[in-house]
Amino acid sequence: MKTGKFLPGFFFLLKEFTVRFYKLLLILWCPSYFFISFFLIFNPALANKAPSSTSVFDWTVAEALLALDPGPVLMGNVSGFHTWTGNSYTDADITSVGSQIFPNMELLSSIGSHRILLAPRQTRMGVMLADIAPFSIIHNFPFANDIDDDLWARFDSFVLEVGALAGRRHKAEKLVANTQVHLRSLQSALEPQPPLLIIQLMNEQYMRVYGENSLFQGVLKRLGLSNAWKQQTNQWGYSLISIRELFNVEDARLVIIESGNPTGIEHNIENSGMWRYLPSVQRGDFVVLPSSFWIGGVHPSARRFADALVEALEEPTTP
Length: 319
Prior knowledge:
By secondary structure, the protein is of the alpha/beta class. Helix content is 43%, strand content 13%.
């Protein structure tokens, strides 16, 4: 009974203590908060130390951006990107944010992207993402139908635009210049070659053959090499053909690029079906290159392709 008499007083004291405690906490916290805010406002260098992230949902844009040391990159379908670039970017600061078409909006919002770079075909996506971060459309996208100007000039313009939008214009200019110097050095050391036929197997019977408007054609021109495939190609620079059509190109040296999902016959082609009867296979001068370059890539993929091609062409043939 005596204990019960003191319970109301106890709760009253507890309430008073709690109120006073929070008042004291507020008094101490507010000046600290305003001091920190004031300090950051008048010290922008410190406030800007937090890395700014860039969101991309097109692999051509992604590769150009990653070559410019952009800081954290948020990307759609990262696993597919690594597969088709031969894991060339596994050490980069990349975070997966869903697919290229349907990004994870909640994850994007929680991470807090600072800018979004999109290909021209992704304009509608920009409207959907506008509440998350400002978006920009890359107008100098290099792979498009019905464009007559030089492919490599489009590569340069594209990379410079990506660099400007990402605040990395100087690095973009350096990438363009260094790639040009590197390809010239490879060309000067390369022995004369017959026309090359560049293919990528889809299965044992059908393949992509690369010609005009392709990344590989752009590299061949800068290495002083000729492409044996003269037929019409799509916006990515390839035609889809059957193996039978390859027999119409007799004097070409076959260059086989592994697919991101290899068919299994690339390294046993001299023993595979009709492939063993192709002139280049019978001569033993065909070469197989690893899939370390994105077919829709620009300078970084072009340089990796050039290095792999020149190395393979310089190896002795085995008839």
